[in-house]
Amino acid sequence: MPSHEKLIELLKGTNINYFHCKEIIEILKQTEKDTKGLFGSYGSQRMKDWQEIVRLYEKDNVYLAESAQLYVRNVNYEVPNVKKQMTKFEQQSDECLKRSNDLGKPEAQLLAEHAALLQQIGVKGENLREEFTQVLSGLPEIYAKSIKQIGTLDEALQLYATTTGQTKQQCLPITRHLIDFGNTTVYQYIHKEAPLSVEEPPIKLNLSAENEMKSNDNEIDFGDDNNGASSTISGEMIDFGELNLETGGEGGIDFGDAGDTGDIDWGIESAPTEGVEINFDIPIEEYGIVVEGAGMDGGVAKGDQAYTLLDSPSYRERFIDELYELEAFLRMRCYELRQVTASSNVMFSLMESISTHDEESLRKMLTNLDVILTEMSSEQTRHLFQLKHSPKYADLLASKLKQMLKAVEKIRTTKQVLKDRSVELKEQRVALTPVLEKLIAQTKDLQGKIEQDISKRYKNRIVNLLGGV
To answer: What's the longest Cα–Cα distance across the chain?
Structure first.
């Protein structure tokens, strides 16, 4: 085929019909005019071939049937299919964008929970091991704050003891001890005396390597090897002196010669014991012997007894149980007061036990009790208590914080993928726009030519094809 712009455009189409062939022949009339003979026929073979195609099309009006078939297919299938595809792309793009926006809610929720957990513990989350160790040092202040108003329970405790017939010290002993002495060690609570020194067990934070923000050297400290010459207790050095194994020296131990019979010479002259009177009345001070107290002068608090009452797992639970016991008693008293009326027959003993306190005073006691219970059950206190006494809790807590951040990162990645997919679908939808426009234009052109052809057959009467694009 000759190089012609219009011709190239016509041949690029996949659906070449009769009307295209007619246009090609019109173009060939210009390009092949040099081959035209005297009688108007063309010597060009390509011109003859296209004229033969048109002749076969016009035989039995085949071209009209084919054009009608192409027109119906475009109207019923091709154009609706492209429109449907464009609508699908647009819906998928909007859905991806909507899902991306919906993921913002769980992302914000996870970030809020992560920040709230860090705030509850009192750390920033940058170096968990160091921050956990640092925040645990503030536990004594937290315990002191939680029982700051425990003195307000004295009146309620006195009422409970009077009602139950117990002594002041027997009724809720841990609560009474905290009111009188504060948050002392378990040793002082048990032995009724303050220890000379406290050796609290070391804190063990069992953080796995993947949960630590910074790598730490895992060194084992076996202590100083003093060869048995000295020992350290509570920071004070105890000197056992030098062990002199030389024979015959002053202050030494004489084991005798190797050739002796094995008798030990203790450096004491033997003397006959018969007839010697022993005097038992010599003051003990003359011998330089010091008699220690029978435990009342204090000792060293070790192990579980080195913890304070609020820091000891067992005594802390017992104290909370005592608070709930006291709360139940006060609520029962409030209930009994509400049931007492002028006409009711109540026992005089019951009236005497509650006559000194009205419902308002009992509710004030309950309010003071609720304040202490709230402080004892606060989120920060529970987290720090578990961190100190449960080696695995630190690892679980660090793992939970890490999983939250991983989930947030996964959500952000998914959001970005959905946004990219939305943009891609929009581009595909836009790419179909010229295809649809071209298809509609071809269909309308085909419609117009069919109408013109049919109009010529009926003396140029106006013909309109209905149901087009």
So the answer is: 178
Please check the confidence at residue 385 and state whether its pLDDT lies above 80: yes
62-73 and 18-31 helices, crossing angle to 10°: 120
How far is it, in rounded angstroms, from Cα 156 to Cα 26?
114
Here the tokens at position 385 are 């208590």
Per-residue pLDDT tens for 84-95?
999 999 999 999
Residues 6+ apart with CB under 8 A from 208: 395, 398, 399
Most confidently predicted of 239-253, 260-274, 398-412: 398-412
> How many Å apart are CA 190 and CA 335, to the nearest integer?
36
Give the Cα separation of 158 and 153 in Å (integer). 9
What kind and span of H or E run contains 30?
helix 18-31
Strand partners, 135: none
Mean of the per-residue pLDDT values of the chain: 77
Q: Which helix (H) or strand (E) holds 355?
A: none
Q: What is the C-alpha R_g of the chain?
A: 51
pLDDT confidence band for 393 (50 / 70 / 90):
confident
Distances (CA, A) of 169 to 112, 180, 382, 410: 47, 10, 29, 59
Residue 45 tokens, joined: 């073979």
Place of tokens 């007894």: 305
Residue 426, pLDDT score = 94
The identity of residue 168, as a single letter, is K
Residue 135 to residue 143: CA distance in whole angstroms: 13
pLDDT class for 235, splitting at 50, 70, 90?
very low
Q: What confidence tier does 277 reach under pLDDT thresholds 50, 70, 90?
A: low
Name which of 360, 352, 335, 365 is nearest 175 in CA terms: 365
Q: How do beta strands 197-199 and 300-302 pair?
A: parallel
* Structure letter (DSSP) for residue 251: T
Distances (CA, A) of 255 to 1, 251, 265, 271: 130, 13, 6, 21
What is the C-alpha to C-alpha distance for residues 292 and 201, in angstroms, rounded to an integer? 27
- pTM for the whole thing? 0.57
**Residue 80, number of CB atoms within 10 A of its CB:** 12
Instruction: Supply angle C-alpha 452, 455, 461, rounded to 5.
Output: 130
- Of all residues in the chain, the percent with pLDDT exceeding 90 is 23
Alpha helices by DSSP H, listed for 59-138, are: 62-73, 79-102, 104-121, 128-136
